[in-house]
Amino acid sequence: MTSQEVFKSRDGAVFTDSQGHPVQEPYAAQRAGQNGPLLLQDFFHIDQLAHFDRERIPERVVHAKGGGAHGVFEVTDDISDLTCSEFLGKVGNKARATARFSTVGGESGSADTARDPRGFSVKIRTEEGNWDHVYNNTPVFFLRDPSRFSTFIHTQKRDPQTHLKSADMFWDYLSQSPEAFHQVMILFGDRGVPDGYRKMHGYSGHTHKLVKADGSFVYAQFHYISNQGTATFTQEESVKIAGENPDYANQDLFEAIERGEHPSWDFCVQTMTPEQAEKFRYNILDLTKIWSHKEFPLRKIGKLTLNENPKNYFAEIEQVAFAPSHLIHGVEPSADPVLQSRLFSYPDTHRYRLGVNYAQLPVNAPLNPPANFQRDGAMAFNNQGFRPNYQSSILPLNYKPAKYDFSKHEKFVGECVNQLTVVTELDFEQPRQLWEKVFDDAQRKRFISNVAGHLSAAKSDEIKQRTLAVFGAVHPDISAGIAKEMGVSNPAPFQPASADQMIAFRANIQ
Ligand code: HEM
């Protein structure tokens, strides 16, 4: 049904209060006489005020601005040699899906064309339960130690005193975090501002595991490849559109679907055996690194098509709750510390943002209603009737046998360590490849101009110099180019000869 049809169909409804009593006149507060006070007995009016007061729920602490749609995820290729997932095991299997795309740092009313990573989330409702993909449009992230996440986000949002965005906070954090520079290179390159949500790819970033019935597994990275191709905006275009139409991306997605142009993405996987992972140049649990496509080619699994706009944005997009911990059998998380942290963080924020029974909301409810021991709490409208809320010998639940055992998986033995990020020369290799091999001359020029424009707004010379030094470690031409454009002196390029030097660099600046 189109939105116009939905709108027309509303006309037939009889107007009522929240308890279903017909109300003759919506705009008629009850008053004692012509000039007297209002009457407390006016349930309709008081209920209306009270409900309005509670209309807003907390916006997402990150990724607050977004838009989404529904559609279908279809398994197109056989990967039964990789996983025992029933859903993925049969070509032609289809599941209803809901996708949400977003920017990260801005509030829910902020501009869609901000230079920022884009969120790329998909909820796939399979017979085996919900499978959520909570991905970004970039294959890497700013950190590999999750303890940094909340403070990192603070520096990308607003200054506690001025409530303004601060280039000093932004670059102060990043220049102390050279491992972030792979993502920084992408962010300030052309891909930093995608043209809407339809023309961008999505990446799990994290390594997962695909598991077979015998318990054997391969490591996996997932990719959504846009069938619309990719398109981006320059800095100038993005600023202009932000002023003219801050909701550009939401409008583009909604109107394309209304026109019947249904965007789609191929869902693909890169895999690596545990033996290959041992020999791999980078740590596969390091979210700041990619796996080369040449060495680990993409293999297609399925296709996501978005063909249906939400009828109600709040119920179907604002209230949707994605979590990396919502996985199906045959797909497991790896030990990537950032992923492990996220497994906890998302359901936790949903309990706060939407309430403890967020999984019962229609958009979040799995196809098979859960049968377990969870009960009660606010808004428990599917409270499992008379089913015992403990393991009863009289009315036992049916338990399915485990599909595989993990006994052959990685064994983790070691001392407790708390220094997850030691920056070494390895961290500069992949950003350097972007500069040397991926960017052409015009892209390099735009990159320099984008960084110089942003970094110039920082007031602290120390922060500017340190940022230039880290860019110099990626490539001396980058720091020289930015310094020239900003009209500041170019610091001696920072070239760590050893891991020890890098640690010393970090200790020095902290
Ligand atoms: C949203 C935490 C890293 C992708 C969120 C939300 C939280 C959060 C609390 C709000 C969720 C909600 O209110 O529903 C974290 C933490 C991270 C982390 C603690 C690291 C320790 C990442 C990474 C990615 C990512 C690495 C991508 C690879 C997303 C996306 C959303 C989101 C796409 C929006 C989900 C939606 O559309 O509802 N994150 N995040 N996050 N995050 Fe993260």
Automatic annotation (TrEMBL):
One of its GO terms (biological process) is hydrogen peroxide catabolic process. Keywords: Heme, Hydrogen peroxide, Iron, Metal-binding, Oxidoreductase, Peroxidase. Its EC number is 1.11.1.6. Residues 16-398 form the Catalase core domain. Its cofactor is heme. It is an enzyme of class 1 (oxidoreductase). The active site is at H63, N136. One of its GO terms (molecular function) is catalase activity. Catalyzes the degradation of hydrogen peroxide (H(2)O(2)) generated by peroxisomal oxidases to water and oxygen, thereby protecting cells from the toxic effects of hydrogen peroxide. Belongs to the catalase family. This is Catalase.
